Amino acid sequence: MTSIRNLLTTAAACVVLAVATPARAEWPERPVTLIAVAGAGGGSDYTMRLLARELEENTGQPFNVINQGQGGGVIGYTTYSTAAKDGYTLGQLSPFAQFKLLGQADFTSESFTPVAQFNADPAAVHVAANSKIKSLKDIVATLKADPSSLKISCGGTCSASWDIPFVSLMLEEGVDVAKINLIPAQGSAAGLQELVSGGIDVVLCSIPETDSLTSAGLVKTVGVLSAERLEKYPDVPTAEEETGKAVTGGTWRGIAGPAGMDPALVAQIEAAVHKAFNSERFQSGMKDRGFGAVWLGTADFTAFIKQHEDQTKRVMNALGTAEVAD
Prior knowledge:
This protein has helices spanning about 1-20, 45-60, 75-80, 95-100, 135-145, 165-170, 190-195, 210-215, 240-245, 265-280, 280-290, 300-320, and strands at about 30-35, 65, 90-95, 110-120, 125-130, 150-155, 180-185, 200-205, 220-225, 250-260, 295. By secondary structure, the chain is an alpha/beta fold. Strands 2-1-3-10-4-11 form a six-stranded mixed beta sheet, with helices on both faces. It has a five-stranded mixed beta sheet with strand order 7-6-8-5-9. The longest helix is centred in the C-terminal third of the chain and has 22 residues, at about 300-320. Keywords: Signal.
């Protein structure tokens, strides 16, 4: 009798537990909003919509991409980092550490739940085809002799995707980076036009942005800050090949949500994003437009963005551009 009573008690407890802690529903059960932290028509918009198309196809739910590029993306980051933690408002995570150091925002890596990285495009170093500078080694030697001797074009505040890895390399080479002549440009296209016209000596941006000028014989890429040579540009040496310093970096894009999301939910979202990433349409869409399809899962992406913060702090402090002590 005692055994039967114990069995009944245990069974009843299991029923109560099952009712009290229902299984997590499959995600998504309704439309999802994806925040692109850039305006319409650019690389962030294109890659986010490419990913959203595959997520819709695979889940049967709408994934609505909303562009919020105001304030360099600060508005977009703020929108999704302060959203509900239910997985229905997610966003693009790209280089962000400069915003706090410039006093433009308060968010850090702890403000987000990283889900996965799906893209990376390395920074590269470009000169005019008729320049006396023939290699990345030449640039290093010139800047060691006189750090302010070259006019170097970079984007926006000169504290983001393309210039941070370049300055990191110069730090490794012992250049006095506080004296480097970094000149902000209204985008890479403007900087490249200045390069061709002779007003700039070096431009920092991605390689695909120079394709038309390189084909016209006006621009030469002397180095790329990636671990290996790029498949599409096999003749461009890496920074490590040129200098012996394994410095990499550039822009990157991933998916994230607000801090504190349930790990089980994050795992579901990561799996859905990974399936979308692996689809033939996504891969071909990235390749056709020259975007690097690079995957990092949740754990690796989380570690990566902390490295991004550390690198950005180091460079901006060395440049003297950090306005907020950290």
